[in-house]
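ok so heres the complex, two chains, lmk if somethin looks off
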Amino acid sequence: MGTDADPSYFLIKLWGGGAERHYAALKFVLYTLLGSVFMLVGIALLDVNYHQWAMLRHVEPTYSFDLLELLSVPIPLSQQILIFWLLFLGFAFKAPVFPFHTWLPNALIEGPIGMAVVLAGLKLGTFGFIRFSIPLLPEASKSQTVVAVTMALGLAAILYGAIMALIQQDFRRLLAFSSISHLGFVVIGLFALNYQGLQGSLLTMINLGFSTAGLFFIAGFLYSRQQSTQLGAFGGMAKQTPLLASFFLFIGLASIGLPGTNGFVGEFLILLGTFKANWLYGGIAVTGVIFGAAYFLWYYERSMLGPLGKAVKDSMSDLHPREVLIAAALSVMILWIGLYPAPFLRIMNGSVQALVDRLDRGTVASIESKQPIQVD
Amino acid sequence: MGDYALLFILFAPFVGAIALIFVSNRHAMLVRGIAAGSALVSLLVSLYVFYAYDHVKGGFQFVQQFEWSRQLGISLHLGVDGIGTPLVLASGILLFAGIFVSWHIKDRTKEFYIWLLILAAATIGVFMSLDLFFLFFFYEMSVIPMYLLLGMWGSHTKAYNEMTDPEGLKLRDSVGFILNFGSNSKEYAAMKLVLFLSAFAVVALMGILLIYKFSGLNTFDILVLREQAKLMNIPVLGTTLDKIIWLLVFIGFASIAPLWPLHSWSPVGHAAAPAATSMLHAGVLMKLGHFSIIRVAFEILPETTRELMPIAAVLCIFSIVYGGFVAFYAKDTKYVIGYSSSSHMGYVFLGMAALDYISLTGAVMYMFAHAMATGMLFAMAGWVYDQTHTRDIPSLGGLSNRMPFIAGCFVVACMASVGVPGTVNFIAEVMIIVGSWNKYPFQVIVAVVGIVLTLAYLFKMMRGLFYGPMDQKYSHAHDAVSLADRLPLLIMITVSIGFFFFPMHLYYVVRSGVDPLIAKITRVVPVASQERETLGVKPEAKADSSPQNLAALPGDVSSLTPYASRSDR
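and the predicted structre for the whole thing:
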């Protein structure tokens, strides 16, 4: 995870377009590294724990960072909770989860759009939860404080992100806050700690790679035409660029969860899981869906519909074949997952089931079986 | 065709919409042709379903089931009963008529028809869903297209885009815009409608998810849930769970119906929407509310329905009276029709609240009849607006000389909406009134006064539009002459009058859906056996006890096919 911070730093600093790109680059790298330091300590503690266990039982090797080896070792609950929070800080800065998110809007606006697509589309942080935190530390993940805190942060992220997105004038800032809101959904799905929630979170992580990344591509198309993603640069563009407007609308509707697109399936599964876990959390989470519809539709209406904006040139070109190819490919995936997600759910089924089993049995049970738990 | 009939009805508009994506806007006739063709397929097959529906057998017919996700218990489960069948037919008729009503749309014709087809298909999807997931799926899908149809092709009364707020910001760019209740812009109407409906859709979703969670059956299938879900007598927050679920489902779906305090999005939306959208919106989209309450709350929680449905009986008074008076004083044609629709939806709630065989049958028939009547009114208000570019009643008048055909049809539409004998609305109204009299005499008196009120405001509007002196600036207005313009009105008038003279098939079909439902709701289970039922955890316990329960049915129902054997699974 550290290795992706360095290229991002230079990508923002050297290829970024904004006036504050040096500040954004530094902020991004410092934040991520700060998180990584905590995580490093957490990983070291995991290793120490493994070492103690291995020494007692005379197991070779005595040190290991291998996930499968680490999984076969019991960890006392107090230790687990400590390690959980250390890892949590690392992943939360990276994801970003709500109070650790402030680097994201800066980095996304100042950096080049290609990097924004990758940053917004790839969910390293939340993947960390599902790959490391939950399987390695099942008892800690189940403990009351952890669930309460993570749920509260997730819910706060959903509402905060959506409300902030509502008032943004810059499309890339709007996308940054909308992905914070979506990540809130992912987090509550994960810490619902049941089959539906975990599956919904995994699917939503995939979805963000298509819909949020797709919207960043759209932002890129807009930027290459107007050299800006501010609202003032658009207005009534659907007349000039019908293809761009259509794909913008379609990918945007996917991101707010129109039935028939991938966003709906992911959000529905997460809400289902959250309701199953605790219907109070579920009740708060569903309100996020309403704001989602509001910020996207309102922005779309002001930028694409209505009378032609002053800054919009008559000669503006519609999407080039290369851009159509990108948008169409993403749209196909959005529809596929939206209408028939069964293949995706089937692939994830085994791993999610294993994760749920792991949560049920905890770390101690795995010693008796002498078999490392198969995670994927 | 037979078994696959519902798939044709549901997917023909979707296929049409997909085909339209690949047609250029330059070929306007081809665009209209594809839209009309796919709507025609849908209409013809829904007619076939309506007449092929076996009302003696009853239950859910034309059932189709496709697995979607086994682990989550979701399947695309389609089927219609006596309540869904006429509503599917009404959607088919209004979609076909709506395509012809919007024949003259010049601006982005293709996109308009795509969204109109998706809207109609989603509505049809709700009427035939037997799976809670897909019911919500299609319900939510019918809301979003409304935003675009209103925002892009709607109309507003002021030059709203140029208005600024005290700080010099354009009004439509400031956050206050969303909360600005004084405006008449189409953007405001669209945003209000979508926010309102998705907010309440979320309320209904909470109810659905609670049903899924607490039934513990790991399925969204309504047919399974209604037989096996045990949601009674679970204490939650000082009351019982079933009441909370029922209220969530009821409030969530009553917002689209719209029931009185939740109605405010509806007239604004009607006023801003283009004619065909208003038709579908008032004709069938509003019925999604009643239908979903019947399908979810009545089917899955019958005992709670009996206990809590008086809420609707109280609120429907306000719906009828308030809507009627606002319609009387409104100056905008579409506001009048919009408020009249929300007033008339109060009748449907009255019919539902009485929980009587006759009144509920009347309520469902009224939904069908109202779809035709309000469809005609909106189509003609749209025609008048297209010709005169105003909806302001006081400035209009004397148009009957310029457009005699429209004026003539308008009389018929008004009479249909009032429920004059000769239209199917009359039968439906009489059934609601007769059926509800025993239980809610006061409401029935209010409803009868409401009919007089309807007469007053509709004839006032008719006089204002078509009679009296005419302003010379409207002398260029012309009548609906071509077949494409007249066809939608002729279809709806034929249906409205035809079902007055031949109502029996409609009656039997609706009755076959209503009977088992009311029998289940009004069935009184002795307290002792109720406790045994709810305490027994195993689902087999219910199957064992069902024959005894059926024996306890009222005499006139026991001659019909027992309800439990009606699931066609």
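quick notes: Residues 365-373 of chain A have pLDDT under 50 and may be disordered. thats all i got rn
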